[in-house]
Amino acid sequence: MQIGQRFVTGYENNVSEQIRTRQGADVEQSAVGKLSADISALKEGEVFRGEILDIVGDKVTISLEDQAKLMARLQAGVELGVGDRLLFSVKENTANQVVIKPVFDSLYSAQTQVLEKALDLAGLSPTEKNFTVAKELMDAGMPVDKSSMVTILSQSMRFEGTSLQTLVSMNKLQIPVTAENITQFGRYENLQHSLTGDIAATAESVADFASAFPQGTDGQTMLQIAGTISELFAPQTESMDAEQGQSAIADMTENMTDTAESDIPHDMASDTEDAAHIMKNTMTSGQPAITETVTGTNDRIMNKMIASFVGKAETNLSEEQFQTIAKALTQAGVPETEVSRLFQNASSEGNLFQNMLHTLQTGSLPDAVMQNLFQDASLKDLMSEIVKKAFSVDPKKMKDPKEIDDLYETILKNTKSFEDAVASHGGNTKGFQQSFQNMRQNMQFMEQLNHQMIYAQMPVRLSNKQTNSELYVYADKRKLQQKKDGISVMLHLDMDHLGATDVKVTLTGSNVHARFYLNDQDSVDIVADNMNTLAKQLADRGFSLTNEVVKRQPQESINKVVDEVIDENAEKSIRRYTFDART
Predict the structure, then answer these.
(1) CA proximity to 174, closest of 145, 146, 142, 132
(2) Residue 5 and residue 67: Cα distance in Å, rounded?
(3) Rounded-to-integer distance, Cα 279 and Cα 337, Å
(4) DSSP one-letter code for 541
(5) By 3-state DSSP, what share of the chain in percent is helix, strand and coil, each rounded to 5?
(6) In the prediction, which pLDDT does 357 show?
(7) Which helix (H) or strand (E) holds 208?
């Protein structure tokens, strides 16, 4: 049954005088017109077919299937040619005008005829929405049957505002269509799905824990929550005990005296010796370190301790940020000698933070001072870095792929434990919920993807910098189990100097072919110059390497390698959505 015969038979030519059109209507891709054929009975969204007979100025004549003619006025932006055959839908039907528009951007084609027949066989009305759903299913290589159509239409009603393309793609990938998964799918589609980005937002939320508590919260509560951060995210180090602390002070005194004599001007040497003398007296007098006062000559010595710490600790923070932390501690009442000791004896950010908490625990700072201290911007940066390191992996130290699964479990477990700790102490966790939720849902979405393909995001540390990597093993899992020949892997990295770097690796037996895609010629040259090193390292492991290093062309996708993998497998919808990997 033809659509035109279904809707446009029996039209009378003399009803056009009874229809008044609104002049100046600004409807994009539409035609507003007087009628020489009666389509006033059509409802909004219904479809009919027509052929362009004539165009004079902004007036167009459309021939319908029963040879009745429709006179319409073209709006700006509509490009039609005599002889074009199109499907039109009714966009608006009121008492004084009918607005119609082409259903698709393309002309009436063989595909449109197939869609007509598919809808007819499915027993579905040829409305614009039904046509669009059928077209999306066809483009995705899915069956255009009644079951598929009803599924997509039902989901579009349930999740109003979600694009049909998204729903079709999720059904093709067998991803459960839920509000949470739709949100995550949109993040992947819009290149906002980086797990490293979610971790960074989570780390900032954790570091800002003091804002979850009202003014006047007691200092011990602040210390307990900070201690929870230390236990959950920096458990590998221990705070110094009192005996270690006194030994460290003695060692530091000697070191600072030697440093002062050799590195600072002669006229400052006596002041430095005085500072060292004060520190020795403090150590032997039994005075609580938290109440002592030292002269300003310790500033330079403290800065040297900070510089030494930054040099040996793997940190992304600058000396200036640590100096700000030191200043915040001294302004809170911690003596400079004690602050210097903290940096002198810390080997990492986590170690420094733990020792800092130990020092604060032994003191008696006022509640307001303690709360303000944990709101210091640089101290929050330190806590944020500790969390980010805990939630990333060092590729050089990875020995078992299971470590990625363990990392995911740790992230979920520790963020939940932290949230519970804040709530149990009377804090408001609302500020954490969005960032925590994004991260958790992202990880759950990855689990759904893994039902169809092997996919993982790995927050990695490269040269002490956090970056997001994405690994795709594009193969049907059943084929992997059958050990069929060859496997293709895509690795995506966002590098500080190379930029977006995609690597497609094909392994056949012991033969490895790697194709690198980079944004500019300088990056291409750097990678090409180091190919011999990569080949040698692979040869040492029993693999032979062939390679290509290419520059992306301006018109190419940022994920050329992904497109190529998908094209080889004829999975166009995955190319557009699931595998758009740039972070």
Answers:
(1) 142
(2) 11
(3) 7
(4) T
(5) 50, 15, 30
(6) 94
(7) none
Which helix or strand (DSSP H or E) is residue 549 part of? strand 544-551
**pLDDT, tens digit, 9 for 90 and up, residues 100-120:** 777 665 445 566 777 778 887
3-state SS, one letter per residue, for 212-229: HCCCCCCHHHHHHHHHHH
CA distance 226 to 350: 12
| 255-275 residue pLDDT tens | 444 444 444 444 444 444 444
pLDDT over 80 (residue 249): no
548 sits in which H/E element: strand 544-551
Question: What average pLDDT does range 136-164 have in this prediction?
Answer: 89
Tokens read off for 308 = 């030494």
Q: Is the pLDDT of residue 206 over 90?
A: yes
Q: What is the pLDDT of residue 195?
A: 83
| CA dist., res. 44 & res. 135, Å (int) | 19
β-bridge mates for residue 548, sequence order: 515
CA 374, CA 230: separation in Å to the nearest integer? 14
Residue given tokens 């006022």 in the structure block: 366
**Is the pLDDT reported for residue 156 higher than 80?**
yes
For 163-191, letters b (16+ CB in 10 Å) and e give bbbbbbbbbbbebebeeebbebbebbbee
SS (H, E, C) 421-473: HHHHCCCCCHHHHHHHHHHHHHHHHHHHHCCCCEEEEEEEEECCEEEEEEEEE
Contacting residues for 291 by C-beta, under 8 A, at least 6 apart? 333, 335
Question: Is the entire prediction scored with pTM above 0.70?
Answer: no
Phi (first) and psi of residue 429, to 5 degrees: -90, 5
pLDDT averaged over the chain?
74
Print burial letters for 144-155: b (CB count within 10 Å at least 16), e (below 16). beeebbebbbeb
Residue whose structure tokens are 């006596």: 270
CA 583 to CA 569: how far, in whole Å? 24
Structure tokens at 104: 């698709």
Using pLDDT thresholds of 50, 70 and 90, give the confidence band for residue 78: low
Q: Which helix (H) or strand (E) holds 566?
A: helix 560-569
381 or 15, greater pLDDT: 381
